[in-house]
Amino acid sequence: MKEYERNNKYDSYIKDHKENVSKAFNVLIENNLVETSYINKIQELINNHDLSKYSKKEYSQYAIYFNTKEKTDQIKKDFDYAWLHHQINNPHHYQYWILNKDDGEVKALDMPYEYIIEMVCDWFSFSVKKGDYTEIGKFYKDLKKSPNISQNTKKIIEPIIETLIKLKQE
Which one, of 121, 122, 50, lies nearest residue 85 by Cα? Predict the structure, then answer.
């Protein structure tokens, strides 16, 4: 695949993911898990979710990585740079909020509320896709031990996730 050559399979994945993020947001709204004053702002974020995946620094690298069985060292390296680009250009990733100080200290900063909700929708989108709302709990189980998410951010995330995994899917 040439750099930035269109890939229908990857385009379809992005489209489906964005739709599932939107569905996840609707579930949060329907269950009163989003502060009302933030809904419009978060809806705008959801509408523009993951647009960087179409950029030259991400698109081909993601498409190749996810559509290649035998991953060469170069494919892995290219994907690592694309993933880093994605994290540092999308504040709904907790990695965006990690401060690496010059003295070597790594500090998790508190995420703004609207990005926390977008992040939860991003994670929950995979539960929506599978039709198993408990999936987000399984995903978060190991992640909640991470020192790379601030305690204040976790205090907002955890009750939302606990409520989501208790919901019955239709």
Answer: 50
Rounded CA-CA distance 99/105 in Å is 8
Query: What is the reported pTM?
Result: 0.93
CA distances, 72 to each of 60, 64, 86, 107 (Å): 15, 11, 21, 33
Residue type, 126: F
Phi-psi region of 35 (alpha: psi -120 to 50; beta: other; left: phi over 0): beta
- Overall size of the chain counted in residues: 170
Q: How far is CA 75 from CA 14, 19, 55, 136, 165, in A?
A: 20, 28, 17, 29, 36
SS3 at position 67: coil
Are the C-beta atoms of residues 94 and 106 closer than 8 Å to each other? no
Residues 106 and 67: their CA atoms lie apart, in Å, by: 34
Nearest-angstrom CA–CA distance, 122 and 95: 14
Q: pLDDT digits over 17-72, tens only?
A: 999 999 999 999 999 999 999 999 999 999 999 999 999 999 999 999 999 999 99
d(CA 136, CA 5): 33
Question: Which helix (H) or strand (E) covers residue 108, if one does?
Answer: strand 106-108
What the block records as the tokens of 98 is 């990690």
